[in-house]
Amino acid sequence: MDSTYGKSRDRISNLPDAVLCHIISFLPTKFAVGTSVLSKRWRYLWASIPNLDFDDDLLLDRDKPIGDSERSICFKNFVDKVLLHGSISCIRKFRLKCSDHELDSAVNSWICTALERNVQDLDLYFDTEYPIELPPKFFFCKTLVVLKLSFSIFLDIPSSIWFPSLKVLHLRSVEFSTDDSAQKLLSSCPVLEELVIERWRWDEQWVFNVSAPTLKSLAIYFSVDGLACIAEREDELVDELDNELLVAPQVGPEDESEDEAEDEPEDQKYKLVVDAPNLEYLSITDFVSEDYLMSNLSSLVKAYVNVGPTIRGIDDQILYRGRIYELLRGISNVKHLSLSGETLHVNKDECEIEEWTLPLQVPTCVELHLNEVEIKKFDGLDYELGAIEFLLKNARVLKKMSIDCRDWRDGQEFCVCEKLSGFTRASRSCEFSVFCHCGGIRMFS
């Protein structure tokens, strides 16, 4: 074969401009602009890409011996140049990650430029010393479909706010100006379908009210230290209920220091209120809220519950069971229920009750609707076994129960499996499986 054949045929460069722009639009903007040096054919293609991704960590080499002010100037000049020379009138996606609070005025200017160019997907991630306040123009955007706000962002919700096209909203440890700010924001989104909230305990939204008639997917993470760390799947929309939206680590009340607990106002308590008649997927990881009020969840198909006793003390741990029962009653139509071992656990070193207390009435979801149960991070404690026995005994239409024991040591699961195999099952068609530490699966007929 002619050795010059491959060199003489540049098939990629012969593609139409629209195709090439689509290809390089998946690159961070730094690399997309870098394609301009390839040839004359590529020189100005980057100016027509619909996706802009600015990351100061990616653009600036932190190991180079230059000052922070020079880095800020370099980053600002680069973003200004791209926005100035960009020829696209409609920005499909605008992502901005910045860790320098000295650029807050420039940041507001960049956001306004994106809004003026009818941005559809806006992703802002600020890791700055002081929170950045978004410009007034941000709160009235007709084109936004996806909005993700992370960390050092201050939301001062104005009286007039409107996001008529917004379907996906992620709020990750942002700061609200007033205690009703979150609900005001949600009320401005008439077509919202997916909501992800990661909270920290000092956000002062004592009653977090999620009232959204169009909402289909809701994931809430509320830990004592605010470090729930949503997994790196934020760029994916939830299209299938079989795929969990996010996975958060087990965070319990022991993660907080006693000094922090003493600062908790005694006359205030956190409450989660959800009213969403079209909700199909619900994920709750919460070790702070003390009340859960769920209503109008008739469409719920799948739920993941990972909650535990808060930091209020022994009385709270005893009352915790009652809140779990209320939560189960609120999701009474769920078909696939996933529970963490922490949800079923009570610390017997601090509480004299050493067995799982049965609810006075079997929740409707357990008795008539539940067809799949998953127990994660199962420790094999008596409380957990009591809960599993209760579910098996009362779930009449249960088709599948799976228990994850993969964190156990060799042989630890044998005794527990013997107990599990002897539990009475209301559903004769139930498939019962235990995932063992060695990667094997034990099936019980």
Please, could you describe this protein's structure?
This protein is α/β, with parallel strands linked by helices. It contains 13 helices and 20 strands. It has helices at 5-8, 17-24, 29-34, 56-59, 68-85, 104-116, 181-187, 258-262, 314-330, 341-344, 364-369, 382-394, 412-421; strands at residues 51-55, 93-98, 121-126, 132-133, 146-151, 153-155, 168-172, 175-176, 194-200, 207-211, 217-223, 271-275, 281-286, 291-295, 302-307, 336-340, 372-376, 400-404, 431-435, 441-444. It has a 14-stranded mixed sheet with strand order 1-2-3-5-7-9-11-13-15-16-17-18-19-20. Strands 4-6-8 form a 3-stranded parallel sheet, with no helix packed on it. A 3-stranded parallel sheet has the order 10-12-14. β17 (372-376), α12 (382-394) and β18 form a beta-alpha-beta unit. The radius of gyration is 26 Å and the shape is elongated. The model is unreliable at 226-262 and 346-354 (pLDDT under 50).
